[in-house]
Automatic annotation (TrEMBL), chains A, B:
Source species: Cebus imitator
Entry keywords, A to Z: Carboxypeptidase, Disulfide bond, Glycoprotein, Hydrolase, Lysosome, Protease, Signal, Zymogen
Gene that specifies this protein: PRCP
The name this protein goes by in its record: Lysosomal Pro-X carboxypeptidase
Signal peptide, first to last residue: 1-21
Reaction catalysis annotation: Cleavage of a -Pro-|-Xaa bond to release a C-terminal amino acid
EC number, UniProt record: 3.4.16.2
Family: Belongs to the peptidase S28 family.
Domain of life assignment: Eukaryota
Parts forming coiled coils: none
Cellular component, GO, one term: lysosome
Amino acid sequence: MGRRALRFLLLSFLAPWATIALRPALRALGSLHLPTNPTSLPAVAKNYSVLYFQQKVDHFGFNTVKTFNQRYLVADKYWKENGGSILFYTGNEGDIIWFCNNTGFMWDVAEELKAMLVFAEHRYYGESLPFGDSSFKGSRHLNFLTSEQALADFAELIKHLKRTIPGAENQPVIAIGGSYGGMLAAWFRMKYPHMVVGALAASAPIWQFEDLVPCGVFMKIVTTDFRKSGPHCSESIRRSWDAINRLSSTGSGLQWLSEAFHLCSPLTSEDIQHLKDWISETWVNLAMVDYPYASNFLQPLPAWPIKVACQYLKNPNVSDLLLLQNIFQALNVYYNYSGQAKCLNISETATGSLGTLGWSYQACTEVVMPFCTNGVDDMFEPHSWNLKELSDDCFQQWGVRPRPSWITTMYGGKNISSHTNIVFR
Amino acid sequence: MGRRALRFLLLSFLAPWATIALRPALRALGSLHLPTNPTSLPAVAKNYSVLYFQQKVDHFGFNTVKTFNQRYLVADKYWKENGGSILFYTGNEGDIIWFCNNTGFMWDVAEELKAMLVFAEHRYYGESLPFGDSSFKGSRHLNFLTSEQALADFAELIKHLKRTIPGAENQPVIAIGGSYGGMLAAWFRMKYPHMVVGALAASAPIWQFEDLVPCGVFMKIVTTDFRKSGPHCSESIRRSWDAINRLSSTGSGLQWLSEAFHLCSPLTSEDIQHLKDWISETWVNLAMVDYPYASNFLQPLPAWPIKVACQYLKNPNVSDLLLLQNIFQALNVYYNYSGQAKCLNISETATGSLGTLGWSYQACTEVVMPFCTNGVDDMFEPHSWNLKELSDDCFQQWGVRPRPSWITTMYGGKNISSHTNIVFR
């Protein structure tokens, strides 16, 4: 049981049906900041000040008076007191500097909008830790990691900025975010319309809760990206799972796999699910950063990286060994485009700037997004959505159980027609 | 110091500048349910079911799994599954049955709107106690007494009703409340517009925070009510304070006062501030229930009770003794209209159905409403608004300190133009 739970918990970072919707942000934000030369990133110098604002740990209760320092970044090169605006990035589950450096859109439009750029770090990520090193120690310390508290942080910070920056008080503020941060931007406009005149919510899966959309839809879209990026590409991936299963049934197969995939540690039979989850998340990540220009967000990548990976996956009708060698080549586009990787580590799929611990807790409490696959409408192994299993694993890891319907209760699900000025894209 | 703090804490229930805005609800609700015969209450039989719904003690954190039973009342005599509606009373600081029996408007319109009436009790009031008898023991137990938690209770309850009552799912819900409950109705529509199509917020002082309105405006309006209800009425009251001060400087004066006012306990010189606060709150209460028909909400009263009281206060130019005898007659309209009172108790100004403990905590945390008087624009003794003193007294009583700007941050202050379908009256 311990082993099984452990595997699931790893899976909650590695496998798409547990957590990947955290990061789709960036595709849309990417397409928003389309540079004039689509093969390179926009070359805007990112100069900003790093600042801190004292926040209450608990906005919704008065029993604790504890505070912490929320980090935020301000870039005001193009800001004008008169006729300007404030673009407010509603930070999501990672280091705010990393998001700041990868949200080109805001930098691109700063001059035109005479905008002050503000990037607010989400509590429990980056340096904004309510209990310092103890922040992730148990459900008592994690109790204040919720979207509601994060939105209240944003509200208090905006009030602070308007109060303290001369000329800012009457300027319009626009919330901007991607992925979970896009949800936050939308929710912020919904809950605090007095704070922001509007929100740009990029790749914000606000309906990826309960049964608002079919649980398989996300992975189906990922599959479509691969299917359209090269002949037989998604079919090759779909067939790879059984090939891995067959090979991993023998010791020599495991050894071959470890070597063929250039893994840093040799596989045991118990690692196989983990391996497949890692590969699955790699495809999902590729879909999320399939930008039309070279980029370096989750990994250094060429333009249209799925197309590049699919060049290795043109023929699904080959032997298991050849198919998996091709899979490795495709994985290598993601993990070793720079040519620097000595071996591949199946415990990592992306930058360490993402806050995996914090996100794991959020996925175990409020942000319960059902994902599933069936291997028919998508290219993944079938995996149903199992709330009971998630709940038990969450209880074992964090001592909490998810409340899958809460986000819909709080933010309205599909019944959001009374809100205005929220751009979803 | 102990004595002083104690006196202030009593004052926080007895004196208008600390708490009276809690109850102005009822005047507007009263005028809403104007009966055809304005000298009597509408005679609608109030038949309802008493029900309970299991609520989470903490909607905004996952560390506790504790629940409690929220009481609510349902009256569905006129309800129609098709074409009907749900009127949802957002319970405020008292026993919900008492509010139910005194919100005639909802009963009056039930048939016309084919409405189901639902009266939801506010947590920490009436029977809806999150920690039972321990609910008011210390800031740890009181930590979940906030407007945000109460609104979340309402949201969960409405979801429950729509899920479990056949035909209710697609019916429009309208939030209705008065005074603090009127604020809750308005805030509920602001924060959960997916739950209610609109709100009727009666006598809801949503701007009685920070400096959104001058702190003296409420007491000025009370004074105007008295000034317009009889010649020299407010002037008589204005002069009464100094008369009390002069009389209470001697032992014989104290004794005379105790007897003239028919007090249950004889006054000491330390009770004088308390006495004046009690009288002040009486005038405020009269203003809040100055209905055009006989009623029995805070006390049994005649129609237009201020006019009746002012009949005793026509001449301010009399001796202290005569002036205060007249004041007693006026007080008696409020405290002894039934003729049943044997003596007057300066620790009580209204029904015990109000939850004074819970409200005291709320006034010490979120619901920080600045009130003040100057004795010129109003008929009361001058009393400035002193946040520091309030904070220290709150800390001594509850171990918490108020956050006076939080309500504005949360609910928008005057910047609420993006909301719709909220009727303030």
